[in-house]
Structure formats: structure tokens, C-alpha cells
């Protein structure tokens, strides 16, 4: 690990840390508010084996300088800071960007501007939309109102109460200085930084310098790089529609809903790191994982889903496998005596077939582990054999944190097993 200082265009010094493989693709992680770069510790750990990982404290946070005045925190300046960091750590070629919260807001501004034109290979965004996109989104909800759009707009407005509160002079500043606001945030969001690691005071200027200016006068800002949005389903500040309804501005877009809260970067860093690594791999090599193909906004509801069907050698199991294949899913089939004939019928959508005794719970669990090792975590499991072992798949789906479905045609005994798994918090 190495450290360096990068001087921004207005003289502000930014604290930059570089870790990981010196010959790997360069990934720059941009934190949000009220965090500093330490927020990325878990995600960075998941990337350093194959990537050159760069983190930096944005102005006003961590070890970086903390200028006073709103003008120092305008989006144009923040985007220029990111450009300065990129040029310092990667003088030539392209970098990959991963950003969260206000880090995402400023990164959207950077990749849709001119400062980093041609320098960004991919962008993974969490919990932070472009303010221009957000302003246009709000206008669309109100100009062409439907019950759903009005509900989305109202829901986001209620989630954004703190933006108005931060415009009030003196009081928010005092609450940060005394530590009361940091403690309150952690009480509401256990995954947020502890008060002693929060950098909320100077970052208040982010809201005061940018929010109403950008939201009230949004400009069209298209992105011309591969983008994936990781949208935490339980985000208390940025709703899923605001994060994900950006198709009109992004030509190469993927949407992945992550089961988690606003600070999923802390609670599930391995999930964030794995998703970012998949987009980086695609941008570097052109090899697109099934998860990325599934997340394309133009993909059908079952297209590129990985589906496991047991009891698939005949009858309902075979018909189910064929129905999924017709919808573009990739299907794994299994039965007590194998399902080779069904696999042939699936043609290009047949992934593999297995022989597994569904009455043997341990055998089914080994089967589930083998599926994960050889093909990845399935999106849908249809257990037509319906006896044992669904819990293994449920656990995998919960760990992946991108949802999924388990459908069981079974006796009451199997239902009890599934309910026991649900009681342990394993329901996808």
C-alpha cells in the first residue's frame, strides 16, 4: 500500500491511497457523505487480489484539506478533483470507477462531462443519482402524472427530508460539532460510520452548494460508458426508482437490486466487490457474466436467469424446464436417474444435467454446492421432486443478496423444512 497527495486545481490537497496489484486494472473508489475513504475497506479487500485499487478522501473529509465556503464544494470542482486523482494515479489509459452516495453524485457529473472523456472504462454506482437526472426524473413524475409516478415522487420526497434540514444555517453544523447528529445517524442506520469516523461537518456544503441549483435546472447529461447501478432495496435515503430509471441517459446500462440498506458497502462488501469486478472484467475483456447479461435493462423477465429444475426427467418437471428455456432462461435439470433426454430438448438453453436422489437430503445439499461451484448461484429453483435440501439453495440466494425464487411442489414435511430456513432469516 502506498500514499500520495494530489493537489486539486484550486490548491486543495487530496489524500490518496493505492493498494493491490500494480499490473491490474485501476479501480478508483469514491466515497460519499458523511464518510471518508475508510468506508471502502471491505470492498477494497475484495478487489485487491486482481485489481489496482485507489481510494481517496474527498475534499472536506478524512485527511484531505477542508476548505470553507460553498463554492469549494460545487459539482464542477468535485468532478475536477476526480479528474486530478485519475491523472495522478493513471497518467495514460482508462480507469474503472465505483462510487457511493455523494461519491456517486459527483462521479455521475464527471463521467457525463468533458474532464474524463475517454478515460473511464466502466462505472458502478450505488445510492447516488446524477442530480441532473434526478431533477429530470422529478419533473417527469409530475408532468405526466400517474398514481405510480405520484407515489414514487412522494416517497422520494419523504426520503429526502434531511436535504431541507441541511439548508438551515448553524444548527446542523452545531449538531455535527457536538457529535449528536453522527450518533443519531448510527442509531437509525447501524451500518453507518461510527460518529468518531464520520466527516459530516464540512460536507454540509455539498447540499448547500448543489442541491437546489442542479435539481431546479437539470441539463441533459448522457453517459457513454458501461454503467451498472447497484440499488439497495432498503435504502432509507435514495429510493429504487430514482436510482434505476435512468435508461434515457445511459446507452449501456445494467440494473442490479441488492438486498440491503444504504450502507450496503459496509454490510455486504463482498457483494459489492463481486458485482464491480464483473463489470470491470466485461469492460477489459468483453466477457460478460450471466449476472451482467441478466441485469441489462433490455433483458426479458427470465432471459439469462439460471434456473434449476429437479424431477425434470419427465412430466411437470420436464414441462417446467422447457417453459423456462422458451423464455430465454439457462436451465439445469436433475432427477434420480438423471435427465439427459430433457437436456437435449432444451437445446442451447440447457446448461447441465445431474443425477441426484432427492430423498437424500445430504445428496441434495452436495448437489446445490456443485451447482454453485460449476455454474454459479441460481436465480430460480423449481423442486418438482419436492423432498429435501431446498435450504441449501435458499442460503445461497440470501448470501448473494440479489433476490431469487424457490418453488417447491412438495409434501407438508418439505414445507416445514423451508419454514425452518425462513425462521433463520434465509428467505430470499
TrEMBL record:
AB hydrolase-1 domain segment(s): 25-134
InterPro entries in the cross-refs: AB_hydrolase_1, AB_hydrolase_fold, NAD(P)-bd_dom_sf, SDR_fam
Stored PANTHER family: EPOXIDE HYDROLASE
Record protein name field: SDR family oxidoreductase
Gene source species: Amycolatopsis plumensis
Amino acid at each position: 500500500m502506498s500514499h500520495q497527495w494530489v493537489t486539486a486545481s484550486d490548491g486543495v490537497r487530496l489524500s490518496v491511497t493505492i493498494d493491490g496489484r500494480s499490473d491490474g486494472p485501476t479501480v478508483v473508489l469514491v466515497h460519499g457523505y458523511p464518510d471518508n475513504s475508510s468506508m471502502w475497506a471491505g470492498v477494497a479487500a475484495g478487489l485487491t487480489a486482481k485489481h489496482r485499487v485507489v481510494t481517496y478522501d474527498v475534499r472536506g473529509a478524512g485527511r484531505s484539506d477542508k476548505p470553507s465556503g460553498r463554492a469549494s464544494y460545487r459539482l464542477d470542482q468535485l468532478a475536477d478533483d476526480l479528474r486530478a486523482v485519475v491523472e495522478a494515479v493513471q497518467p495514460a489509459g482508462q480507469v474503472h470507477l465505483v462510487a457511493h452516495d455523494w461519491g456517486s453524485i459527483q462521479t455521475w457529473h464527471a463521467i457525463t462531462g468533458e474532464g474524463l472523456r475517454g478515460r473511464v472504462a466502466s462505472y458502478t454506482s450505488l445510492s447516488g443519482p446524477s442530480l441532473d437526472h434526478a431533477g429530470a426524473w422529478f419533473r417527469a413524475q409530475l408532468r405526466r402524472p400517474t398514481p405510480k409516478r405520484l407515489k414514487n415522487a412522494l416517497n422520494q420526497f419523504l426520503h429526502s427530508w434531511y436535504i431541507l434540514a441541511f439548508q438551515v444555517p448553524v444548527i446542523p453544523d452545531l449538531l455535527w460539532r457536538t457529535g449528536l447528529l453522527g450518533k443519531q445517524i448510527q442509531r437509525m442506520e447501524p451500518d453507518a460510520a461510527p460518529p468518531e469516523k464520520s466527516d459530516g461537518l464540512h460536507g454540509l456544503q455539498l447540499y448547500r452548494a448543489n442541491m437546489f441549483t442542479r435539481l431546479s435546472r437539470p441539463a441533459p447529461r448522457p453517459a457513454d460508458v458501461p454503467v451498472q447501478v447497484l440499488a439497495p432495496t432498503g435504502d432509507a435515503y435514495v429510493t429504487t426508482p430514482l436510482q434505476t430509471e435512468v435508461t434515457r441517459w445511459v446507452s449501456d446500462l445494467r440494473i442490479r437490486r441488492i438486498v440491503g440498506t444504504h450502507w450496503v458497502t459496509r454490510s455486504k462488501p463482498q457483494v459489492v466487490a463481486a458485482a464491480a469486478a464483473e463489470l470491470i472484467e466485461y469492460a477489459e475483456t468483453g466477457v460478460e457474466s450471466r449476472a451482467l447479461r441478466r441485469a441489462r435493462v433490455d433483458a426479458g423477465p427470465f432471459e439469462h436467469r439460471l434456473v434449476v429444475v429437479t424431477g425434470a426427467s419427465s412430466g411437470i418437471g420436464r414441462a417446467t424446464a422447457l417453459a423456462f428455456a422458451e423464455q430465454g432462461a439457462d436451465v439445469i435439470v436433475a432427477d434420480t436417474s438423471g435427465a439427459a433426454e430433457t437436456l437435449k430438448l432444451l437445446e442451447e438453453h440447457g446448461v447441465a444435467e445431474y443425477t441426484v436422489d432427492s430423498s437424500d437430503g445430504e445428496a441434495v445439499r452436495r448437489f446445490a454446492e456443485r451447482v454453485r461451484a460449476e455454474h454459479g448461484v441460481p436465480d430460480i429453483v423449481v423442486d418438482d421432486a419436492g423432498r429435501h435440501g431446498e435450504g441449501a439453495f435458499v442460503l445461497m440466494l440470501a448470501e448473494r443478496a440479489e433476490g431469487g425464487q424457490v418453488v417447491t411442489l412438495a409434501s407438508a414435511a418439505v414445507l416445514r423444512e423451508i419454514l425452518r430456513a425462513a425462521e433463520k432469516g434465509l428467505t430470499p
